[in-house]
Amino acid sequence: MTTTLRNYHARMQRVLDHIDQHLDRNLDLDELSRVAAFSKFHFHRQFAAAFGLSVHRYIQLVRMKRASYRLAYRDVDSVTEIAMDAGYDAPDAFARAFRQRFSQSPSQFRKSPDWEPWLAALGPLNQARSKLMQRTFAADDIEIREVSPTPVAIMKHVGDPARIGDTIKRFIAWRKAAGLNPKTSSTFNIFHSDPRVTSPDEYRLDLCVSTDRPIKTNGEHVEAGMIPGGRCAVLRVVGNTDDLEPAALYLYRDWLPASGEEARDFPLYCQRLTFFPEEPEHAAVTELFLPLK
Q1: Which pLDDT tens digit goes with each residue over 159-179?
Q2: C-alpha distances out from residue 174 to 58, 73, 168, 184, 208, Å
């Protein structure tokens, strides 16, 4: 990539970060073109050419994604509050737009999300970001770290990866009832399966929270477990952490063969350090751990 093209991408990245940081504000072309340092007369065409979406539609999708996360995972936020933060003057206007986008009303989605139309509706947003924001990693991004054993409570997700949202919703409700706040009890995911080579019905992911307390299941299937201590290659991922596959591929395909290291007999796992929508999506931080011998 040439220096000129890297500079162009960096200017567009500033725009995406600015949108993420200021979703509660009215974002117009004048403001966004100034952030990118492009002419306001051409910026909307440059944005659409880069991302395949108009600026207006891109912002709508980002706001709807944040709104859907808050509906599914944050019961303390009212529908009215979520509607206002998404840029709508009234809940009924938000409800119409939400139903049109996701084929459910906000209240229906909050109670029982239908993830298939949700994934389809947000597909253009994910594709738009991947067109320009392809992540690259380097050996200098890897830290070899000695980690301590961590006792955890585990809720397993077994089945279609598209349904992980249902398990996350149950996991959040369970840990809230158990008093295991993310600020004081760390959140981990253990990746037992590679979705690229595993059939959907055999896919497994463990949702974990650190705790050494006796586990009260509260009607859920939760069990005690341990993330073992030892040496790990650690790769920090900042930004949209819904898809950690590029980071995992770098660790296995590029870094591990060249490092002279050998993987230990425990799955790849991650620690979620900050979360969307509590943080703007570009600021979410996850660390990926590859256990080493």
Answers
A1: 999 999 999 999 999 999 999
A2: 34, 12, 10, 16, 11
